[in-house]
């Protein structure tokens, strides 16, 4: 008998991997069911959201949907649902590894190159690549991975947002500054909401039986703001060195933990500092490949490994930086700036919709082809997913997605180091939004 959704209708895999239903949101859920686990209902299961483009997608992925997607990817969970006595599953999330980046550097990755070739020639599944969410940034994508919900549902719509306790409408006298902004990575500040209560969509881990999943990554991530918002519910095993993480994963599996989430952040950190075309980034890619070879060697035979990424990256330079504070037409009527240089949220005086439309048109005129997309809050559901109340309170009145390798910066808000970053992401280009989906067995 085929799987069925909570509404009783036959569950099926996404017809296409499209921006309104990016396949990255299924990866952790598929990892869970592939390990023999069952996703508990959340109250949202079986509901359907319709985006402004007419696409439909469940706000949260139900168990039946996850099983249908797993089947479409060539994954057959062992045993009956709820019987997790098999070898287990490891979901590897590589921060900052776009599909095109991997393809261009595959000569340095004998392990990943083999996995890539397996997916490219597979008779079933998505191939070697899937889409991440828009914006293509860590806070949004990891929360989508962790909850299976789009940014428009979770409210995790960028690197930073207007502090929910200030907005959504600001006085005309307000001036953009860092004190207005909440970082969805750090959640630091004196007047910020609790990440657990503000982002209250249940995570995949919270929907699994207690003790059935562990998370492996740097020690400092235990209880961090982003972890609490996006990935709470799993026991955390700290490993600051990438080389130590495969052993921890293997140990957890051998102790009977069916699902392991393994985070790799070294490529993203190095890409931001040196650019992804640098020798330093290539060194981190080679470390990743060696760690994946070690993972295969150490986990129990038959362990399934799913590797994906939250976003890709583009390299920029000073000639492609636009300082909005230096352009009178860009400054006018903007009372707060959030997001990031590749995907900027602009807030206008009093949140006035007519003024927002005017500002959007002005930005289109000034930026021209240097911007990939500029729209008002009402238009952002096309990219972020249908906006719930949480997102509506923090999404900019105007949102600007930059083209090619252009960035839009504001020294009143962004630090010197953020402005000078050679490696950036967040926009809608294929290099940033197409990520690998590699599936193999040990």
From TrEMBL:
Gene3D superfamilies: Alkaline Phosphatase, subunit A. Transmembrane segments: none annotated. One of its GO terms (molecular function) is hydrolase activity. InterPro entries: Alkaline_phosphatase_core_sf, Phosphodiest/P_Trfase. PANTHER family: BIS(5'-ADENOSYL)-TRIPHOSPHATASE, ECTONUCLEOTIDE PYROPHOSPHATASE/PHOSPHODIESTERASE. This is Alkaline phosphatase family protein.
